[in-house]
Write a structure and sequence with these properties.
Blueprint: H1 2-9, H2 14-37, H3 48-62, H4 95-108, H5 112-137, H6 140-152, H7 154-159, H8 166-183, H9 189-209, H10 215-229, H11 235-264, H12 269-284, E1 288-293, E2 296-300, H13 308-312, H14 329-342, H15 348-364, E3 366-372, E4 375-380, H16 392-407, H17 412-436, H18 438-454, E5 461-464, H19 469-475, E6 481-484, H20 490-496, E7 502-506, H21 516-528, E8 535-540, E9 550-554
Parallel strand pairs: 2-4, 5-6, 5-7
Antiparallel strand pairs: 1-2, 3-4, 7-9, 8-9
Length: 558
Amino acid sequence: MAARRHARSRKIPTTTFRKELLVVAALLFLALAVRLYYFTGPTFANTQDEGIYYNIFLQGVVLHNYPHFTQYLGANFGDPDQGIFNPAVIPTFYSGLIYPEMFLLKTLGFSANLALYYVILTSLVEGLFIYLILKEISGFRTAVISLLLFSFFPLNVMFANRLEPLVPAAMFVTIASYILIRSMKLRNRGEVATAGVLTGIFIGLGYLTNPLSLSLLVFLVLLMASGALRGVERPGWYAYRIALVVAGIGLVFSVSGVFYYMQSGNFLLYPTVDRIAAVNNLINQPVSTLAQIGGIKLVRLDVQPLFYLPIFFNYPSPQPYGSSYFSFLGYISAAAAVGLVLLRVRFARFFAGMLLLYFILINFFPLASHASGGATSVLLVYMEPMLLALLTLPVIALSALGIDYLLSRAEPELVAFGAAILVAAIVMSVVNLNGDVMLPRSSMATVNAMASFVQTVPNATFYLNPYISGEVDVLTAHKYRVLPMTSCSSAYMEGIAQGNSTYIAVGGTANMDVDEQIIHSFSDCEAANLTAGSELVYTANNPYMDEPELQVYRLGAG
């Protein structure tokens, strides 16, 4: 009875709760508004995976060609013609992304933009749980700061606009982290059991969305081992909690395994495909040896051992866009990690350890191994900036804790310094976003203009440069004859010219992953080799960059 009276006395007053709810709702609306303002539409020709995901959705939702997992059995994984679900074509079948998307698009109708809205939704859910985590461990003000920083965090804003699995996976990891933190003070075995299994379930859902989500389990094991070594709790209690989390992961893995077994006869289809796809990359793509230990070579698809470090600290990235994913929150969170740990601020070691472990894993996580010629090659994790999405929780949490620590000091100078850091973080994030989003917006301006024109001439054949043909074909839902140009020569032009029914596109901005000179050279070549009698029928200016306007020509008969 006394415990119930104590619990009631700690309840937040209704008026305070409503005010906090309004603040959270306003901040989530701000986060949504920022993501929609910087929304570019699907730039899926710029990474192979995104185009494949869209193709899978189109196949299932529009053409009713759902995945046939028997395609994996006995397939030649080095042959990209084996089918769109073959690992030679797609790195893996991330069911935690694909099935929710398929359900959404089946329910509401196929739309390339709608597929991205799902990713934006998962981003907002992640922001909400970051707020709840900081509210739990530090208080309302820290939580508000965290959600404010998250609203403008360039890394999350940019990848919430990409059809990739890491933002949805990060959402599941963040939810699991919230349950984990809430459960740390539980002692009732029933409540601990429920929380442990739930934590495992959300880690498992994250694993189905991207395997790197299992890094939270690694962090959890290290956290519990640290507690046991320091004598905080009996080792058996920690072992019990870890077992519960593993049970939750096992439950998700078993349900998905049964599904895959019913479809293909292979219970371990998902990890098998993931491994074979990675081995396929290891064998069929050029790799560089980073180090050799005995008969084991550590290799990766590029020569930069610390690919993610310069991005974290906002140095120019080798990527053509998105070199400012962290704004200067990389510096803030790193400084906060050191300072707060030294000051013994509550939960500072928790998030500093999480940041360090995740950073190590995304740089050196072994994806696959392949034995050949007496040596074993080990492929380290792909160098993709999107993998940094896993760092969102520790970076935002450490930054918010550090800023709030300064704002809570008695010295006016420290308070002013904390306020200045907060304002500067938001301003710099906006500046970086404005620059980083310019090229994707420019690229999509060309693609959207071309897709609009294609739909006005339904019975024509369109030959587009290979940098935008796939995007236009998907945006028009494969309803029109859109083909890639394989050459820009006069002979090729004459070969495809069919009177008034054949069109080509010249100019515009396309595919940010291709060198600008290559694109312009192709357009110049097209313009120089137009067949006799070709007629300019459509033009569209680019409102974002000073680029040649998009021009559509109807080819003459030659």
